[in-house]
Amino acid sequence: MLRALTLVLLLSSPARACDTALLLAIDVSGSIDGGDYALQVQGLAAALSDPVVADILVQGQVALAVMQWSGLGEQALVQPWQRMLAPGDVARFAAVAATTRRAFVNSRTAVGEAITVAVAEFAAVPDCRRRVIDISGDGPENAGNGVGAARRAAIAAGIGINAIAIEESGLPSPVSAFYERLVVTPGGFVMTARGLGDYARTLRAKLLRELEKPVG
Questions:
Q1: Per residue in 117-152, is it b (16+ CB within 10 Å) or e — as a string?
Q2: pLDDT score of 8
Q3: Are 59 and 87 in contact (CB under 8 A)?
Q4: pTM higher than the cut 0.70
């Protein structure tokens, strides 16, 4: 009798609300060659497959989506919103990420338009407590010149923007400075990957920080 009552209570309890909606916006502009693209999607899959990251995604019932972006009019939601309700959901999402075909080639870098399109995608996940754009890129805006207005629109909508700046090896960090100064929202942050070979490690650390967990 007690077991039956417990089952009824579990079935009748409302599902826990989504903690965070996280849109992963990946740069596929002309400066990203075929090898770089492979490192980027494999790095995404590796970061999502990390046991600590996967556990946090499920605990928070996080909604994930992946958008590829490049020049003007070149943004594609290559993985629509999915809720991470069980470990299998994370594993399937990561597997698709690793094999997703590139949406655009040989184009420019329209950061502002990427943010504008990303902001609109959050209409599909209105129940999530937090909404965050996780944008990665290896260069500043060179098409559209709309990053300032797009950032202001994200702030007005209550959407945060964090970034991974993909830099060449060496000390100067011009891409990081661009994202820090013009792209991330108040309270947001930039993490720097020294080449795309460093992307998986940086993204893992960034996901843990975005989901408000200590980085280990």
A1: bbbebbeebeebebbbbbbbbbbbbebbebbeebbe
A2: 38
A3: no
A4: yes
Backbone angles phi, psi at 112, to 5 degrees: -60, -45
From the CB of residue 187, how many other CB atoms can be counted at a distance below 10 Å?
A: 8
pLDDT of residue 134: 95
Alpha-helical segments (H) within 15-146:
34-49, 51-59, 87-99, 111-121
Report the distance separating Cα 38 and Cα 35, nearest Å.
5
Q: Which residues of the chain have pLDDT under 70?
A: 1-16, 170-171, 213-216
The position carrying tokens 């407590």 is 129
CB 69 within 8 A of CB 54: no
175, 166 in Cβ contact below 8 A?
Answer: yes
d(CA 132, CA 111): 16
The CATH homologous superfamily for domain 18-210 is von Willebrand factor, type A domain (3.40.50.410)
